[in-house]
Amino acid sequence: MKHKTRVTDFDLFTRSYIETAFWSSTFEANADGTPAGKETGRQVPFDDMFTERDVDMESLINIQDDCARFQKENAHLLSQWDEEQAGHDFWLTRNGHGAGFWARDLPHKDELSKAAKACGEAYLIPDTDQDGSWVVVVQY
Fold first, then answer.
1. Is residue 2 pLDDT above 80, yes or no?
2. Domain residues for 44?
3. H/E element holding 28?
4. Parallel, antiparallel, or unpaired: how do β-strands 134-139 and 123-128 relate?
5. Does residue 124 belong to any structural domain of this protein?
6. Separation between Cα atoms, residue 17 and residue 106, nearest integer Å
7. Sign (positive/negative) of CA torsion 127, 129, 131, 135?
8. What is the pLDDT of residue 67?
9. 49 lies in a domain?
10. What angle, rounded to 10 degrees, do the helices at 83-94 and 57-73 form?
11. Which of 10, 39, 47, 138 could form a disulfide with 59, with the two C-beta atoms 3.0–4.6 Å apart?
12. In whole angstroms, how far apart are CA 61 and each of 20, 83, 133?
């Protein structure tokens, strides 16, 4: 698979997956809103500080591979789903959020939920790159 380097070039499923990851994930923050690296009791949504442009390249490749694999392996189940909604629900379901495939009144919701859960959880983590700039990595 040839990997893309700009999120705007990704398919709608993958873009929605990333967008959902950002608004549904939080990190521990200092008083100024920067990542703390320790418990502070102050949870900040990722999309308050970061955008998809902050995701490191290895994580972008992993996201593309995860989303492509899930779509390919479940194409027969996803055919009646909106691509954007399916990407959204893939992130929520694999991470055990209170919504996702299972909460929709659409075909194959149970099979898609099982397939998403089988992928395991994924987490956004704030980190720094070689230059000391903040980046987002995906941890499995």
1. no
2. 7-139
3. strand 26-28
4. antiparallel
5. yes
6. 19
7. negative
8. 98
9. yes
10. 110
11. 138
12. 17, 20, 20
- Residue 1: pLDDT band (50, 70, 90) is low
pLDDT in tens, 92-127: 999 999 899 999 999 999 999 999 999 999 999 999
Amino acid at 10: F
Q: Is residue 2 part of a domain?
A: no
Q: Which helix (H) or strand (E) holds 58?
A: helix 57-73
The mean-pLDDT minimum among 1-15, 72-86, 90-104 falls in 1-15
Cα–Cα distance, 67 to 140 (Å, whole number): 14
Residue 5 is predicted with a pLDDT of 74
The C-alpha atoms of residue 100 and residue 86 are separated, in whole angstroms, by 9
For residue 8, the model assigns a pLDDT of 84
Token readout for 10 is: 């990704």
Q: Is residue 43 part of a domain?
A: yes
Q: What is the pLDDT of residues 49-68, one digit of tens each?
A: 999 999 999 999 999 999 99
Rounded-to-10 torsion of CA 25, 136, 86, 118: -80
Instruction: Indicate the number of domains in the chain.
Output: 1
CB 114 within 8 A of CB 43: no
Amino acid at 8: T
